[in-house]
Amino acid sequence: MRKIISLVLLLALAQQPSLACDGTARQSSGDAREWWQSAQFYQIYPRSFMDSNGDGIGDLAGITSRLNYLKDLNVTAVWLSPIYTSPMADFGYDIADFFDIQPEYGTLNDFDNLVQEANKLGLKVILDFVPNHSSDENEWFKKSVRRERGYEDYYVWHDGYKNESGARVPPSNWLQAFRGSAWEWNEERQQYYLHQFAVKQPDLNYRNPAVVAQMKRVLTYWLDRGVAGFRVDAVPWCFEVLPDETGRYPDEPLSGYTDDPDDSSYLLHIYTQDLPETVDMVYQWRKLLDDYQRIHGGDRRVLLTEAWSPLDYVMKFYGNRTTEGAQMPFNFQFIVGGNSDKNNTDLPASGFVKIISSWLDNMPSGHTANWVMGNHDQRRVGSRYGEGRIDLMNMLQMFLPGVSITYMGEEIGMTDLDISWEDSRDPAACNSNANIYEQFTRDPARTPFQWSNTANAGFSTNSTTWLPINPNYVTVNVQTEEAASKSHLTIYNQLVALRKTKTLQQGDASYTAIGDNVLAIKRFLKDEKTYLLLANVLDSAVTADVSDVLRVSGNFNTVITNMLSTRKEGDIVSVNNVPLGAYEAIIVESM
Ligand SMILES: *[C@@H]1O[C@H](CO)[C@@H](O)[C@H](O)[C@H]1NC(C)=O
Ligand SMILES: *[C@@H]1O[C@H](CO)[C@@H](O)[C@H](O)[C@H]1NC(C)=O
Ligand SMILES: *[C@@H]1O[C@H](CO)[C@@H](O)[C@H](O)[C@H]1NC(C)=O
Ligand SMILES: *[C@@H]1O[C@H](CO)[C@@H](O)[C@H](O)[C@H]1NC(C)=O
Ligand SMILES: *[C@@H]1O[C@H](CO)[C@@H](O)[C@H](O)[C@H]1NC(C)=O
Ligand SMILES: CC(=O)N[C@H]1CO[C@H](CO)[C@@H](O)[C@@H]1O
Ligand SMILES: [Ca+2]
Ligand SMILES: [Ca+2]
Q1: Lowest mean per-residue pLDDT among 3-12, 84-93, 218-227, 503-512
Q2: Whose atoms come closest to the Cα of 490: which ligand?
Q3: N or C: which end of the chain has fewer CB within 10 A?
Q4: pLDDT above 60 for 117
Q5: Does the domain at residues 36-133+209-242+272-491 carry the CATH identifier 3.20.20.80?
Q6: What is the mean pLDDT of the segment spanning 181-205?
Q7: 3-26 per-position pLDDT tens digit
Q8: Dihedral sign for Cα atoms in the order 463, 466, 467, 469
């Protein structure tokens, strides 16, 4: 089936080779562009970025000490994964106090200092906002367990049922994301509570206006501390369907995808995800940010939303005809749009084209595209797309029109480290068993950042770090790559500089596949230089003629080459005869 689809796509492309696509808002091109529209966002997983006090765990002072590195990368805004008080059942996505900092990461003072120092360097700070759930150690939950006034319905509680043999059974068949029932019995309250993630992550009840107001207070609190916006976690889970008039929640239908009844993909989540109420909630948060800016001034505050939902639902987060939504609903097509097992090491050029067009063709007009290649939940890009394609993926992220969102370490080509069962820390792994955890674990992409080839990769003075360090740090690290004449990092820096050209900031894009091997992308703007990204995505050499498909002619000048290319900057490329070695990727400019 997939073969047929890509064949049809190739035929369509052959007939209409220059699929022109504008990744950014036409009406806002030129002067009206806002700071975020061609920004580089950089995701930091704080636990693994930099340890300032030798306890083997990254922290806020560590991040502050490395802001110059981010400045040198010309990062526009840094998104920090959760840093709030947490028992760390899900490494900070289980928040015990939405208004304070996890002690092992530092204090509110350390946070204020981080924002201040970042702002001095022109860097904005974005926080992770985790609206769907809190920790069971949050005061709100404890009060709700005790049915304290005002907190009775802060979470989703239910008596459950007695089955025919008189045993207590949960209110519905709903499953949590980390395996097993989404309902947990609470002895003290004598009711079940809903947790769409871990048992220690009870879902807040968005049907309760007091909860909605409380979470808006959380946003305002951090805006007051100077953040430039929020990345919103796990958005599609916020609302669940209302119970029927007898108080019963409907069971979800079986998906047929797996026989494992504990696996969340055993069910189709038609009652627990992607509800319309959730979209409206995002619009309300956007309004809060805009109102805040109107009152307090400063640059536009932004929202980035995380939703692994069908594209038509994801696109709704941009807003509708009357109401603004998130500026950047995350585009996960490079993660979900390839092969279903996410092993894209053999993905042909048409697969890349399909991924790119799936976003650009479905994005409502007047909005800005964004490109996410990975994050702390996914295998590293080099491990998913193959190490030969590390630079290519960075090139795509920087070259395609719109916002780039880099997960820390991708700029130096960090790859997954296999973590043993004993060393596993992720609840998604630990809730399974030693035989199957590798399917679920998210630890391999969370290992400490590799700063140098000195002890512990320069991450910590402690030789015991919370997750082991990838032994490849000896060669894959910032210090070594900065000193090299050519490395993943020097190439990334070249891409950053290229991004500053008017063509890349404001130009149109067209793109196509030539055979299985060649992915060809053109960026162009009237009166400016034209740039071409020409990539051989497979491991056999080819020669391509891109002149007709990209509507270009003559000679181009080589400006950036990947690690596997033997070309040099300044080499002349004739667009009707471009030999490309295995996995070679180059960017050339018109002369
Ligand atoms: C080093 O890290 C380990 C494990 O994280 C910890 O138990 C130990 O106390 C740390 N050493 C120092 C000096 O902080
Ligand atoms: C009732 O639930 C209990 C506990 O889950 C289970 O062991 C038992 O088989 C169930 N009985 C029936 C009749 O479904
Ligand atoms: C847009 O969204 C708002 C807020 O959810 C809603 O009230 C309005 O009806 C929607 N408009 C259209 C045209 O869908
Ligand atoms: C992906 O597929 C390639 C080629 O079939 C294989 O060599 C590699 O081990 C696979 N990688 C993963 C992470 O499954
Ligand atoms: C980052 O920006 C500064 C000033 O805008 C510039 O001098 C520097 O070359 C840029 N770095 C890169 C990698 O483009
Ligand atoms: C990419 C990402 O942030 N994923 C998070 C989604 O939400 C769950 C629950 O909060 C986390 O476990 C994931 O890490
Ligand atoms: Ca530390
Ligand atoms: Ca929910």
Answers
A1: 3-12
A2: 5
A3: N
A4: yes
A5: yes
A6: 98
A7: 333 333 333 333 333 333 444 333
A8: negative
> Could you write out the DSSP letters of every residue in 423-457?
T---HHHHTS-TTTHHHH--GGG-SPP---SSGGG
Neighbour-count burial for 158-188, b at 16+ CB within 10 Å, e otherwise: bebeeeeeeeeebbbbbbbbbbbbbbbebee
What is the percent of the chain with per-residue pLDDT over 70, rounded to a whole number?
95
| pLDDT over 80 (residue 576) | yes
The full set of domain ranges for the chain reads 36-133+209-242+272-491, 134-205+243-271
For domain 134-205+243-271, the CATH class is alpha beta
* CA 390 – CA 583 distance, rounded (Å): 10
List pLDDT tens digits, range 200-251: 999 999 999 999 999 999 999 999 999 999 999 999 999 999 999 999 999 9
pLDDT value at residue 32: 62
Which residues surround ligand 2 with Cβ inside 6 Å?
Answer: 163-165, 167, 169
Side-chain-side CA neighbours of residue 245 (13 Å): 0
State how far the Cα of 466 lies from the Cα of 47, in Å rounded to an integer: 8
pLDDT for 33 equals 85
The token pair that represents 236 in the structure block: 């599609």
Of the residues 22, 233, 411, 426, only one is catalytic, namely 233
Cβ atoms of 400 and 357 within 8 Å: the answer is: no
pLDDT tens digits, 466-476 = 999 999 999 99
Task: Choose the weakest-confidence range: 289-298, 421-430, 537-546.
Answer: 421-430
CA of 190 to the centre of ligand 6 (A): 29
Q: Is 259 a catalytic residue?
A: no
pLDDT in tens, 140-167: 999 999 999 999 999 999 999 999 999 9
Q: How far is the CA of 303 from the centre of ligand 4 (A)?
A: 35
Res 406 pLDDT > 90: yes
Output the six-digit token pair for 519: 């992915």
> Which residues sit with their C-beta closer than 6 Å to ligand 1?
54-56, 462, 464, 466
> How many CB atoms are located within 10 Å of the residue 517 CB?
22
How far is Cα of residue 11 from the mean position of the Cα atoms in its chain? 32
Cβ of 431 below 6 Å from ligand 6: no
Task: Identify the nearest ligand to the CA of 281 by its number.
Answer: 3
User: How far is 565 from 423, CA to CA, in rounded Å?
Assistant: 38
**What's the Cα-to-Cα distance from 487 to each of 387, 405, 480, 548, 560, rounded to whole Å?**
13, 20, 9, 33, 12
Contact present, 570 and 526 (Cβ < 8 Å)? no
Known catalytic residue at 233:
yes
Give residues with Cβ within 8 angstroms of 393, minimum separation 6. 334, 373, 381, 382, 385, 410
Closest C-alpha residue for ligand 2 atom 3: 167
Nearest CA to ligand 2 atom 11: 165
Q: Tell the burial category of 483 from Cβ atoms under 10 Å away from its Cβ (0-12, 13-18, 19+).
A: exposed
Residue 279 tokens, joined: 């979209």
Determine the length of the chain. 591
d(CA 182, CA 170) in angstroms, rounded, equals: 9
